[in-house]
Amino acid sequence: MFRKDLIKILLDNPMSVPKIAHLVDESPKDVSDHLEHLLLSLKHTEFVPDIYPAECRRCDFVFGTDKLRKPSKCPKCKSTWLTDPEIGIKRKVLTTDGHA
Q1: pTM of the model
Q2: According to DSSP H, which parts of the chain are helical?
Q3: pLDDT tens digits, one per residue of 38-74
């Protein structure tokens, strides 16, 4: 899978790593590795990451946006009832002077 294909898949369409893996027929680990590299290289493109972090459904704890895969349990209440983080991509919004 090419990372540029991920941009097409995720442009204005956030998805979880397992869903992306199923869609492109690769392992979640491989997809996660590709996404990490892609998110680093986005700063040199017209795109920006759009990450919806994992959350605990029990106590509403919100994880950081650096976690691309679902954590095993909540550090606050120890619950395993967590949402998957979703990763998307948006185009940069340029100001009237042409800067992001």
Answers
A1: 0.83
A2: 3-10, 17-24, 28-41
A3: 999 998 889 999 999 999 999 999 999 988 999 999 9
